[in-house]
Amino acid sequence: xxxxxxxxxxxxxxxxxxxxxxxxxxxxxxxxxxxxxxxxxxxxxxxxxxxxxxxxxxxxxxxxxxxxxxxxxxxxxxxxxxxxxxxxxxxxxxxxxxxxxxxxxxxxxxxxxxxxxxxxxxxxxxxxxxxxxxxxxxxxxxxxxxxxxxxxxxxxxxxxxxxxxxxxxxxxxxxxxxxxxxxxxxxxxxxxxxxxxxxxxxxxxxxxxxxxxxxxxxxxxxxxxxxxxxxxxxxxxxxxxxxxxxxxxxxxxxxxxxxxxxxx
Length: 264
Prior knowledge:
The structure is a single chain. The chain has helices spanning 2-5, 8-33, 38-45, 48-71, 78-81, 99-135, 145-148, 150-175, 177-193, 196-203, 209-228, 231-262. The longest helix has 37 residues, at 99-135. The chain is built from 12 helices and no strands. The chain has one domain (2-262). It is mostly helical.
């Protein structure tokens, strides 16, 4: 089946995995080397390094998939990435689609929005229940609002959803929509397991919530793709579920903390 789709998709996919490994393990080494080398510490703690990190993340999460889409010689298929068009907007560009096609496209979007709302609500309920269970412990963690809400939360949702869609693309072509979607999820899981920061985060009770929530949303993303094949809606539901969860969880956390402080 690999020969049937050519090697280009696998080159891009393998290159992305290799790049992720090189970047994360280099960062891991630098974080530990800065304790022994003042020059490295000065560079990592300086104003330039965070900017370089964000540029690198932008190029990795969005640049690589869209470079493969534009220049990869069918390494990425836009439809399998979930780049669903909204034909009603074509008229704004001066190239209106036939009315019948617009109506059919709108019907597809309405159906997809319904599935998205249903799966999003179910995901929020499951994650909120899990968070409520964890919070009943003696040292309840707190979700980081800064990474889940607002513009930063939307950026992170877009980064992860585009990345996961990219990893689904070649497996879907080779294995079909169902098995290819889950194989793509497996590749994303492999990348996470090989990331030393991800593993370290799981071992830290104060930081474990975010990687676990991302893992849960990766599963939701795969299920949503099988029903809608719509990347845009996946980004919105990812953003909305985690933002809503962080707002609800931290609001409850604050209330319980204040109650405990007022009743020592």
